[in-house]
């Protein structure tokens, strides 16, 4: 019976910096990871978690926007024909970008925690993060311009 409960055991996992094992694949899986705090590691871990939570928040916002676009949500008037035609592709684009934000934030978090465990962390954003952020920003600006231009034609 204790063998079945081992993955859910609350015993903390003490990671050795010389170990080659991945910290997120160390059993028990749902236990806290312990690292030696030699310098500013606690502050850096908290900053890494805040960064992941920011990516998670962006992902949730983009998912909400994608659903609102797909159902053609309007407060005052009915959507135009072109808005109805663009609703599904633009909503799916935002949905895919939402998952890209979530995957990028999680991958960045796991990579940084792994490097913290090995005492080799270099806190900076990589080219993948820059690409995802640029694509998301361009998509948001493009959709805003598109919606503003269709709204201007109505009036």
Radius of gyration: 22 Å
Find the structural class using helix and strand composition: mainly alpha
Mean pLDDT: 78
Order of helices and strands: HEEHHH
Describe this structure in words.
By secondary structure, this protein is mainly alpha-helical. It contains 4 helices and 2 strands. The protein has helices at about 1-5, 40-70, 80-115, 125-155, and strands at about 15, 35. It has a two-stranded parallel ribbon with strand order 1-2. Helix 3 packs antiparallel against helix 4 (about 125-155). The longest helix is centred in the middle third of the chain and has 37 residues, at about 80-115. The protein is elongated and about 60 Å long. The relative contact order is 0.12.
Keywords:
two-stranded parallel ribbon; 155 residues; 64% helix; 4 helices; mainly alpha
Topology (elements, then pairings):
Blueprint: H1 2-5, E1 13-14, E2 33-34, H2 41-70, H3 81-117, H4 127-154
Parallel strand pairs: 1-2
Helix pairs in contact: 2-3, 3-4
Brief summary of the model shown:
This protein has 155 residues and is mainly α. It has helices at 2-5, 41-70, 81-117, 127-154, and strands at residues 13-14, 33-34.
